[in-house]
Amino acid sequence: MNTKYQIIILGNNNTFIDDILKTFFHHVEELKIKKESIIIINRNNFHEYRANAPAVCLYFGEKGNLNYDIDITAKLKQDANIILPIVNNMDDFNDSIPELLRGVNGTALSSKNDIKPLVNSILEGFGLLRISRKLFISYRRNESSEVAIQLYEQLEKHGFDVFLDTHSIRPGEPFQEELWHRMADTDVIVLLNTPGFLDRKWTKEEVAQANAMSIGILQVIWPRHKLEDIAKLGIPFQLSDSSFGNFHFKSADKYLSDETIEDLVGSVESLRARCLASRQDNIITNFILSAQRAKKEAVLQPERYITIKGDNDQEFIFIPTVGVPEAFIYNKSDELVCKLKSKDVKGFLIYDHLNIREKWLTHLSWLDNHLPIKSIKILEAEKWLQKNV
């Protein structure tokens, strides 16, 4: 497949464009996507644009300048591409963005702190990161529940789907079973490392499960406390007295300052892509090893899916899926397979079912019976390949 990911830059000049692309290609490298599979397009080389290839357009607005690249933008909109209107200040959105884009949710880019969320939106648009942005807060209730609730509310405002045990488990659900399920589907764990965090059995088990599933941990370390050597993949986030709005982290009404929250969100954004890439790597590596044991030749494509050629030139495509597969993932995978159907192609999701609830596995079986894309548990891949390829 020679299709390239297309980043299309339109609208006004912007001082952050070089920094955006630098950050984007840094994440592309972490995700092990070849730089050659990306093309940057603007008004000068728009003849290279391909309507049937994945594209994300960045339209940079400027107050009073609304007439740049209107025809090109209309073409991209007609082709149903993702277009991200970008302005310096959301209060000036209607005065900065052409009318044909005013119905699209825009984003503010006023400082370098806004670059990482924007880059993650580009990666999500290409399907290189999950659109669902799932976080899990691990904490000890009697030491940090006030801050845990504050982070839950603030991270939700920043577009994350946050799991917090006191807020996220519905009455009547089996507590521990649902907790492990939600952890299996998370991108990053925000761990509030207070002095007594590891004294509790369940917090130790949460860390052990995270390491077993290669989930990254942002370790938020309390003032005058130490970094715990507990995470295979993670980064420390050291707090001080001044990280708290009331400068007293031991008070009953303690809370993190706005500046600390912003820095913490940036750290989560940085860690998220690395974590998803690592988990995808594990699935890919285990699947290729299963194929070798089953004596099948598996080829990892630049776009990070795997192909195997079976009997009678039957081609199989295996798409590594991080977390809990959902109907939307089936749909996006089917779109990929349809683009490749120059031959008879069958598509499959491969995923790690560790800690996924039984009722959800039953749901996945139902989806397999009703959708063209099927799913395969990574632990059953070798047996499946021997039987079906």
Which architecture of the largest domain would the CATH scheme give at its second level?
Answer: 3-Layer(aba) Sandwich
Q: Low-confidence spans: pLDDT under 50, at least 5 residues? A: none
Query: Which homologous superfamily in CATH is the superfamily of the largest domain?
Result: Toll/interleukin-1 receptor homology (TIR) domain
**What is the CATH fold-level name of the largest domain?**
Rossmann fold
Q: How many angstroms does the end-to-end distance come to?
A: 22 Å
What global shape is seen? flat
Helix content: 25-40%
Order of helices and strands: EHEEHEHEHEHEHHEHEEHEEEHEHEH
Q: Strand order within the widest sheet? A: 2-1-3-4-5
Annotation, overall tally of beta strands: 15
Helical stretch tally: 12
Largest sheet: 5 strands, parallel
Oligomer: single chain
Rg computed from alpha carbons, rounded to a whole number of angstroms: 23 Å
Number of domains: 3
State mean pLDDT (0 to 100 scale): 88
CATH class wording of the largest domain: Alpha Beta
Question: What class would the helix/strand composition place it in?
Answer: alpha/beta
In what range is the share of β-strand residues? 15-25%
Topology:
Blueprint: E1 5-11, H1 17-30, E2 38-41, E3 55-60, H2 70-78, E4 82-87, H3 93-96, E5 107-108, H4 115-125, E6 134-138, H5 141-157, E7 161-163, H6 165-168, H7 175-184, E8 188-193, H8 201-212, E9 216-221, E10 234-238, H9 258-293, E11 298-300, E12 306-309, E13 315-320, H10 327-339, E14 345-351, H11 358-370, E15 374-377, H12 381-388
Parallel strand pairs: 1-2, 1-3, 3-4, 4-5, 6-7, 6-8, 8-9, 9-10, 13-14, 14-15
Antiparallel strand pairs: 11-12, 12-13
